[in-house]
Amino acid sequence: MLKTSTQRVAAPQRLPTAAVRRVVARSASVASPPAPVQFHQPKLSGIYTEQQFKMVIKGLVASGKMPAHLEPAWEFFYDNYKLAVLNSGVDGADEKLVTQVQASILDNVLNQAVDPYTFPSFHSRLLEPYNYYEFGQRYVATLIDFKNSVLGYRERWDRVQELLAQKHNVVLLANHQTEADPGVFAHMLAATHPNLSTDVIYVAGDRVVTDPMCKPFSMGRNLFCVHSKKHMDDIPELKAAKMETNRKTLVAMQRKLNEGGTLIWIAPSGGRDRPNANDEWLPDRFDPSAVELMRNLVQRAKQPGHLIPMSMFSHPMMPPPKTLEKSIGERRVTNFTGVGISLCEELDIASIISGSDDKETQQKALATAAHTAVTESYVMMEKAIKDPAFRATRPEFSQPWAKSA
């Protein structure tokens, strides 16, 4: 049984909740507002201003409930987030909204300090008594410029939905850019394919389930928890335990695929994209062993399966550190920006690997084909997001959340 917090959930406060609803509804032009803001600690629900919030941070440090080095880090996070939201130009994006969202994040981080959640190999999103899914969606929505965001190839997403309804499995081989990617994915599909946005299972690495800031957001997503090869040797004495966790996760993945109708999102690169030497953001190289693993799992399943590349553009929203870091607790930079996802054609596995009988060559060919498709899709989508004139000439990119859609 999944562990849930036993702490009381406070009643939502009307003014900040109304502000959040206005911002999300008007920026996305959608009819359904998010659920009311929830708090584990009722006292935090009454924080509406920057001064109040920063006084709470100082009080936590003074009482020993927060390490002193986190005070400037969180103040930077607040100030940076406030700048992004207030400059968004969205009606209702004010100091109350900023503080309410920041207070809800602080509330969840503090709750994890006293009632930590341990992720199993397969984690189902937690919606009661606290709705962690809405918590994450609310935060991400305030940073999305929906007017300059796109959903690529809506009809291909229709096909994915049809396949899942027929008990087929679908694995999305995607690039990965920010901690907010699950929220971006869900927002882009919520208007047209709500079940895809909520039912997808993400293959999640170490940081997603261990970083105190990430954990509450991760609790609102369905996850297969694994340890990435990039971080397997960070702490040598934990390597054996990490490998055992990965083994259990593979068993859980195979079980879900045998049931059928499972949608999985995985980043075969093993982490977030980073800018290249020319400061260009492009999908990072796919690890052939990761793509091959998914191919084997899909082919061994009792139900039919499909490997489909997908491109994701989100890096301006929460750009990761430019270099790979081993320590937990990175500095959070946020921006209000256009984002997008776009689906590629399904991989024709038999055709791709037909050129060689060598297994290693076949694996590299499959990973290269997936990465090439994602990169080409990404380049087109990035242009559609940044150039409205170009977007207007490309019918494959739509904005289904807009009232006119």
UniProtKB/TrEMBL annotation:
It catalyses: sn-glycerol 3-phosphate + an acyl-CoA = a 1-acyl-sn-glycero-3-phosphate + CoA. SUPFAM superfamilies: Glycerol-3-phosphate (1)-acyltransferase. Its main location: plastid. It comes from Gonium pectorale. GO terms for molecular function: glycerol-3-phosphate O-acyltransferase activity. The lineage of its organism: Eukaryota, Viridiplantae, Chlorophyta, core chlorophytes, Chlorophyceae. This is Glycerol-3-phosphate acyltransferase, chloroplastic. It holds the Pfam family GPAT_N. It is an enzyme of class 2 (transferase). One of its GO terms (biological process) is CDP-diacylglycerol biosynthetic process. It is found in: Plastid, Chloroplast stroma. Pathway: Phospholipid metabolism; CDP-diacylglycerol biosynthesis; CDP-diacylglycerol from sn-glycerol 3-phosphate: step 1/3; Lipid metabolism. A motif (HXXXXD motif) lies at residues 176-181. Esterifies acyl-group from acyl-ACP to the sn-1 position of glycerol-3-phosphate. The enzyme from chilling-resistant plants discriminates against non-fluid palmitic acid and selects oleic acid whereas the enzyme from sensitive plants accepts both fatty acids.
